[in-house]
Amino acid sequence: MQQQHDDDTNKVTRFEEEELQSARASVETLTANLDNLNQRKADVLNNLEQLRERINKKGDATYTGVQKLVPLLKSLKDLESQESVLQSDYDVKRTELEAEVCNLEEKIAAGMDSEGLCKDLDCLLSESLEKLNAAKKELAARLRAVMSVKRKLGEVPTQSELIQYERGFSDVNDHIQEKHRQTRKYYATYNTLLEIKELMLKETSLLNSISSQFQDAITTTNGCTKLIASMEGIVKGSQQRLQKVELGLQEEQKVSDALKKRYAAAMAEQRRCYSLLKAFQVSTGH
């Protein structure tokens, strides 16, 4: 009988130790889950910080991304508030579990009746299982919310995609500028040829007029005077057109000089950048 009683006592003791270990494992599981949630929160905050840096660098090019980030930031704030609530709940549950563990240890140390202790342990185990299942459900909901935020963040263009967009826009802008320059060149050529045509037509008309009226003009004094006045008017008009052409040439020369200066400055900057790159490669050993 004494041996049977000792065996029962040993079984109860082992059962109590297993229950204590189970309770401690539950506490450790909750702690690990909370640490995992904190790590996920840190990852989300890190991703948001990187996105803010990209937005600050890209400016207006990422305005659409900013619009997408506004609801994401709101979701993050909601998740943070939920996390604070879960943290407080976790603290309360941990305190309760620690109190229960201490109570069990006191009962074991005081030599409580095995049957009553088993009932208490069963009750505590049932409550712990219920709390564990509730914590798992909360954790699953939390994970779903985090995954939803990650999917929404994935819809925001990455830095490489933004660089590709910027490069594409730059190529399109260069193409448009080149087309615009060619169009201006063609219009300038057309206007120049049109002026030449008008001058040639006027010159032809003048020569025809002189040829038809020259014989009549030189026979009379009045006709000769009119011819001389007409020639002076033609010379004056030609001089005015020549001055206009010279002014246009001067303007074009100024533009050409400005472009040459810009080109020289760009070449100097390129040489400076090349020398800096060369010095950097030498200093880094590449």
UniProtKB/TrEMBL annotation:
The CCDC93 coiled-coil domain extends over 17-281
Output compositional bias ranges, type Basic and acidic residues: 1-15
Q: Name one Pfam family in it.
A: CCDC93_CC
**Which residues are in coiled coils?**
20-61
Annotated spans, Disordered: 1-20
Per the record, the domain of life is Eukaryota
Under the heading InterPro entries, the entry gives: CCDC93 (IPR039116), CCDC93_CC (IPR019159)
**Alphabetic keyword roster:** Coiled coil
Q: Which GO terms describe its biological process?
A: Golgi to plasma membrane transport
Alphabetical list of PANTHER family matching this protein: COILED-COIL DOMAIN-CONTAINING PROTEIN 93, FIDIPIDINE
Protein's UniProt name: CCDC93 coiled-coil domain-containing protein
**What broad taxonomic lineage does this protein's source fall under?**
Eukaryota, Viridiplantae, Streptophyta, Embryophyta, Tracheophyta
